[in-house]
């Protein structure tokens, strides 16, 4: 029962925040510093999700070895992203390296 209340509470808070943005719309003016900071939110959230999954894929301690396909795929994606700056190429290469590494090196 506690989980249901927790999920419902999160849903209500999310809906209220989104509704407030739509209802208030143009009347809310953020200072330039806040607007700049909000631009970094997507990168920060994705980093917070991806790094733990790549470094500790099994939920335990860090697995910083060449036998960790998630880490190898993530490092390949970072390298490709730095070189090409193209998201679709980055995703494709990262996934290809991950699956190839998992199949041929650790499989």
Report on this model:
With 107 residues, this protein is an all-alpha fold. The chain contains five helices and no strands. The chain has helices at residues 2-24, 32-38, 41-55, 69-84, 87-105. The radius of gyration is 20 Å and the shape is extended. The N and C termini lie far apart (42 Å). 8% of the residues are buried. The mean pLDDT is 93.
Can you count the helices? Answer: 5
Structural class: mainly alpha
Identify the overall geometry: extended
Mean pLDDT: 93
Q: Report on the biggest sheet.
A: none
Rg, rounded, reads: 20 Å
Domains (count): 2
Stretches where pLDDT is under 50 for at least 5 consecutive residues are none
Annotation, overall tally of beta strands: 0
Q: What is the string of helix and strand elements?
A: HHHHH
Strand content: under 5%
How far apart are the first and last residues' alpha carbons, in Å? 42 Å
Query: Helix amount, in percent?
Result: over 70%
Task: Pick out its properties.
107 residues, single chain, Brnchd-chn_aa_trnsp_AzlD, AzlD domain-containing protein, 5 helices, transmembrane
Strands, helices and their partners?
Blueprint lengths: L1 H23 L7 H7 L2 H15 L13 H16 L2 H19 L2
Task: Summarize the model shown.
This protein has 107 residues and is mainly α. The chain is 75% helix and 0% strand.
């Amino acid at each position: 029962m506690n989980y249901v209340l927790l999920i419902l509470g999160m849903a209500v808070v999310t809906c209220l925040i989104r509704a407030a943005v739509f209802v208030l719309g143009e009347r809310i003016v953020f200072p330039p510093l806040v607007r700049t900071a909000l631009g970094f939110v997507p990168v920060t959230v994705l980093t917070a999700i991806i790094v733990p999954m790549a470094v500790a894929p099994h939920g335990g301690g860090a697995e910083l070895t060449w036998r960790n396909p998630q880490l190898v795929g993530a490092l390949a994606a970072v390298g490709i992203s730095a070189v090409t700056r193209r998201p679709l190429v980055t995703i494709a290469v990262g996934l290809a390296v991950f699956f190839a590494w998992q199949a041929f090196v650790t499989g």
